[in-house]
Write a structure and sequence with these properties.
Strand 8 and strand 9 form a beta hairpin. 47% of the residues lie in helices and 16% in strands. The chain is globular and about 80 Å long. By secondary structure, it is of the alpha+beta class. The chain folds into 6 domains: 198 residues, Hypothetical protein af1432; 154 residues, Beta Polymerase, domain 2 (2-Layer Sandwich); 115 residues, Ubiquitin-like (UB roll) (Roll); 69 residues, no CATH class; 83 residues, no CATH class; 76 residues, ACT domain (Alpha-Beta Plaits), CATH 3.30.70.260. The strands form 6 sheets. The chain has a 5-stranded mixed β-sheet with strand order 1-2-5-4-3. Helix 9 runs antiparallel to helix 10. About 5% of the residues have low confidence.
């Protein structure tokens, strides 16, 4: 008996027919067609009568995911079947065993990997992080599960408008923290860009619309420039009888916005809005690499290249398999333009990532490992020895999704790829766990350096070891790679129990010195002061000597509530009709904590997160990276009520501004005049210096709100010679 209306049936049948058209690319015989049809009809029966928040039949979601799997990722029949069934076990009475009986062990395994975990989790465990760990562990067996999960997330993002605000923050936080980097790492560039753009669209709709409109306004002018730039290149490629496609690719809205945020510049100062891409059909001879360099030579005969911006990812592909030749050249009117040169094979891998990589690898019958295989092996090694909690696991896995790498060399000339920012200690653990555990220093390019030394592209490293050396807790702040963090953590955990016991004894002894009784309130206050989320972490850090209790008396006597928190309140927004209740919710001042990672000011767009340990509401800026991490692990703790700054009292808040520009006579006078005379602002601290004609400075001052700060920064930007004016989030002057 169907629970669908006639309109539902019509919409479902239309979507199904479109899916079957797409399946022509992958179905090789009647068995394949029947396999997909059986999956569709089982999903239809299982989800009968169920609707999404939008009101449409739920079945349209797995059909849409299956379409993405075929058309945008390029997977095969089993993946389409798994996509159609990915919510059946989770949401209906069907079991994994039922799926295995009907569709076989492989499909059942994939569906199981896509099914959320159920069960009871203790207070220290994030159910969300446990589920992500379960999905990510499938990398050890079947990468397709991850790819289907990315397709699932992409469709959910495309329909996110129907979700309430707190769910939007949770889902976008997960997406920007984990799924977008994962899509990048698996080579799915178009999907990665769309995920990022959609996150921005829902989290920062005004900024998204603003940049989109500016891009639309400048489209005609931009296209004219692209045509003018490409004309001489087209002429030379045609003369050489090269089959090619040339196009101008505009940066995504999100990448433009992040550049504006990172450099704190307006849209008009983002000059690399587009890149030119040349995709050509290779000839049997000479090699792909040689043909790419020949086209590069043709282009640099026309436009002068910028030598330090040449990127050869053909000789040494990125870890996700990406291959291309990138060059930046001086185009007409004095504009630098990036040119990307790829073969059709490289283009397919860049667009379809892992699926295309695997197809070409099978086609060439190559048994040798390439960059992607090497990365996958490293990830699998890390995933197969998860010694940490789900939250730690997720944070560490995130480290394997670095978007840029460097190549370094062993003393014998063996190449090693490490994330940009890796240290000599990361290199030591990359060689072998024992080398890392006993490292005391390094010879980098034959010069003795500390193991904390960050590595550069092309460095040759020899690790110096000592038998009595052993990992230290502070090493966790030195290393950047997943492997190094896991190995150090594993060693420390073997010693942790003793440290915990010693830490408890030391803490209780200190409390006794000041005649303070041990209590949950005292412990939570101390943990917060020393930036520890878990009591075992707090005690072990004391026992290991990482935390000194010399200032514990000051901590115990301090007030944990910031004076900022007396001036703001929660306003509840009704999910159903969008009406706002202007009356403040009954929250005491000490229920709130200002996040030190981003230091929001009154007027900043903020989001509340309920700390699972302290139960306090931590207030972050909406743009805070730490908020995205928390949303990806504890999404249920995002406060659904909007947090608004109240206007009934005036006070001053500490903020720090960084200035940089060309030094001249009277620069300092102009700055102090604006601060003191124009804005009547008090300064707490000022640090200015001039060297080689460059002026640099940091001002720590008190402002009323974010608008006042932005007005002050705009005024600074009008000072002759000042090139950069930035807000520093943590209010620290070194």
């Amino acid at each position: 008996m169907s629970n669908y209306t006639s309109d539902d049936e019509r919409v479902i049948n239309e979507a199904y027919e479109e899916l079957l058209v797409s399946c022509k690319k992958i179905c090789k015989g009647e068995d394949d067609w029947n396999f997909i049809k059986r999956a569709f009809f089982l999903a239809k029966e299982a989800h009968a009568g169920v609707r999404r928040r939008s009101g449409e039949p739920y079945l349209l979601h797995p059909i849409a995911v299956a379409q993405i799997v075929i058309n945008e990722i390029g997977l095969g029949v089993k993946s389409v079947v798994a996509a159609l069934l990915h919510d059946v076990v989770e949401d209906t009475d069907y079991t994994v065993e039922d799926i295995e009986h009907i569709f076989g062990a492989k499909v059942a395994s994939m569906v199981d990997g896509l099914t959320k975990m159920s069960g009871v989790f203790n207070a220290d465990t994030s159910e969300q992080a446990e589920y992500f760990r379960k999905v990510l562990l499938t990398l050890s067996d079947d990468v397709r599960v991850i790819l289907i999960k990315i397709a699932d997330r992409l469709h959910n993002m495309r329909t996110l408008q129907f979700m309430p605000l707190n769910k939007q923050i949770k889902i976008t936080g997960e997406t920007i923290y984990l799924f977008a980097p994962l899509a990048y790492r698996l080579g799915l560039y178009p999907i990665k860009s769309e995920l990022e753009d959609l996150c921005m669209k829902y989290r920062f709709p005004e900024e998204y619309e603003h940049i989109s409109s500016l891009l639309a306004e400048s489209a005609e002018k931009r296209q004219e420039y692209i045509d003018r730039f490409c004309k001489p290149i087209i002429e030379v490629l045609d003369r050489n009888n090269i089959q090619y496609e040339i196009s101008g690719r505009v940066k995504s809205v999100y990448s433009i916005w992040t550049k504006m945020q990172r450099k704190q510049i307006p849209f008009e100062e983002v000059y690399d809005l587009f890149a030119i891409r040349i995709v050509f059909q290779t000839l049997p001879f000479p090699s792909e690499k040689t043909q790419c360099w020949q086209i590069y030579s043709n282009i640099t005969d026309i436009y002068a290249p910028k030598q330090d911006r040449l990127r050869d990812w053909i000789s040494m592909p990125k870890a996700n398999g990406y291959e291309a030749l990138h060059s930046t050249v001086m185009g007409p009117d004095g504009h630098w333009v990036e040119v990307q040169i790829r073969t059709q094979r490289m283009e397919d891998i860049a667009e379809r990532g892992f699926a295309a990589h695997w197809k070409y690898k099978k086609a060439t019958l190559s048994q040798s490992d390439d960059a992607f295989d090497t990365w996958l092996k490293k990830v699998r090694d890390a995933l197969n020895s998860p010694t940490e909690s789900a939250v730690e696991f997720l944070d560490n896995f995130k480290l394997s999704l670095y978007t840029s790498e460097i190549t370094v060399f062993t003393p014998k000339g063996e190449q090693r790829q490490l994330p940009n920012g890796a240290t000599a200690l990361d290199f030591a653990y990359d060689i072998h766990t024992k080398v890392g555990d006993h490292a005391i220093g390094a010879k980098i390019n034959h010069k003795i350096e500390a193991i904390t030394k960050p590595l550069k592209w092309g460095d040759q490293i020899e690790i110096i070891t000592a038998d009595n050396a052993k990992p230290k807790a502070e090493w966790l702040n030195i290393v950047t790679t997943t492997k190094a963090k896991q190995k150090i953590t594993a060693f420390l955990k073997r010693e942790q129990q003793n440290n915990i016991e010693n830490g408890i004894a030391l803490f209780e002894s200190k409390l006794a010195e000041y005649d303070v009784a041990m209590s949950g309130r005292v412990l939570r206050k101390a943990m917060q002061a020393y930036d520890c989320k878990y009591k075992d972490e707090f005690y072990s850090h004391i026992g290991a000597g990482i935390i000194s209790l010399d200032n514990i008396e000051k901590v115990l006597k301090s007030s944990s509530t910031s004076k900022l928190l007396k001036f703001w309140q929660l306003r509840q927004e009704d999910e159903d009709d969008g009406d706002i209740d202007d009356s403040p919710k009954s929250q005491s001042d000490d229920s709130f904590v200002i996040a030190p990672c981003c230091s929001p000011l009154p007027g900043d767009n903020v989001v509340g997160f309920r700390d699972p340990v302290t139960e306090k509401i931590v207030v972050h800026k909406a743009t805070c990276d730490e908020l995205n991490r928390l949303a990806s692990q504890y999404g249920k703790n995002i406060i659904k009520d909007k947090i608004k700054w109240s206007q009934h009292k005036a006070t001053a808040y500490l903020s720090t501004i960084e200035l940089r520009g060309i030094d001249r006579m009277g620069m300092l006078s102009d700055i102090t005049h604006i601060v003191s005379d124009d804005f009547s602002i008090n300064m707490r601290e000022i640090h200015l210096r001039s060297h080689d004609g460059i002026f640099e400075g940091k001002l720590s001052l008190y402002v009323q709100d974010a608008d006042s700060l932005h007005a002050l920064m705009d005024k600074f930007r009008q000072i002759k010679g000042l090139e950069s004016v930035k807000r520093i989030e943590n209010n620290e002057i070194e």
